[in-house]
Amino acid sequence: PSPKPLLACVMGLTLGRARIFEQVAGIVVTPSMRDLLEAEAALSKAHAQVRSLERLALQIIGLRLMGYAGIHLSGIHDVEQLLTLEQTINRWQSRIHSLEQWAPAWAACWQMPGLPAVTFHPPEANWRLGESHVTASRKETARYHLLSGFHSLLFSRSSWLSQAFGWAVQRPVWATPTGARVLHRLERSVKRPLVGCDTCGRCRLEDTLYVCPETCPKGLANGPCGGTSLNRCEFGDRECIHSVKYRMAKAVGQTEVLVERLIPCVEENSRHRSSWPGWFEARGCASASPCGGG
Description:
The protein is mainly alpha-helical. Helix content is 46%, strand content 3%. A two-stranded parallel ribbon has the order 1-2.
C-alpha cells in the first residue's frame, strides 16, 4: 500500500509547559527531562528559551527525515520567535542530512554538564526501542486460530459452505424491517460472547486479529489513544486492545497486519445492523481489504 501523508503536532517544551503536561494523559515528561528544564530555567529565562527553540528546530528536522509530510506548529506566539526558529532550522539543516547525523545532535541538545543523561520513557517502563518481551497466552492463541478457522469456513466467499451461508443471508426476507432486526440479534448473540461485538454493521475482525475495536471505549481500530499508559486503557479497568492486538500478532506471526492495513471507521448509519449481507455483497473486495468481514 502507498504511504499515507502524516502531519506531526509539535510544540517547544518549556518548564511551564512540562508542569502542565505532567497532568495530561498520554504525554510523558520524565523526571530527568524536568530536571534539565529546571536547570536551564535557573540559569536564565532567555537561556531556557534558546534551548527550547533549539530542540524544537531539531525535532522538526528529525520529523522531516523520518518522512512526515509536514508539521502543525503551536506555542509560538510572536513573529520574533518564529523568525528565530526559522533561522535555527536553517542552521541545522545545512549540517544534518540524515537520521544518522541527526541522532547525536538530538541527544546533545538534551544534555547539560553536571546532570545525568535524559531518558524519555516513564520510570516504570524500562523499555528500549526494538525490545519486546510480550506474547499471547495459549488460550488467546487458541482463540485466534479458532476464530480464524471459523472465518475461513463461513466468510471466505470461495468454499461451498461460505457460498451457501452468503446465499442464505442475502435472501430478501432479511431486507425487511423485521428480518433485519432478527438477523441483527442473531449476529449479536453469536459474536458478542466471543468478541464483545456491538454489531457496528461493518465487521473488521479479520483485520484486527479478532480483537473487536468496539470493545475499546473510544472505538479506535488503528492504534491507542493518548490516554494509554503502560499498555493500560486510560479507564484503568482493562488492557488496551491495541496491546492485546500486538501480543496476538506477534504470537501468530502477523505483525505486518498492524502496519499494512488501514482499518476504516464505521459510519454511524451502519451501526446496529448485521454486517453479514454486506460482506457477501462486496464480492469485488479482497479478503484483506477494509470492506468488512464476519
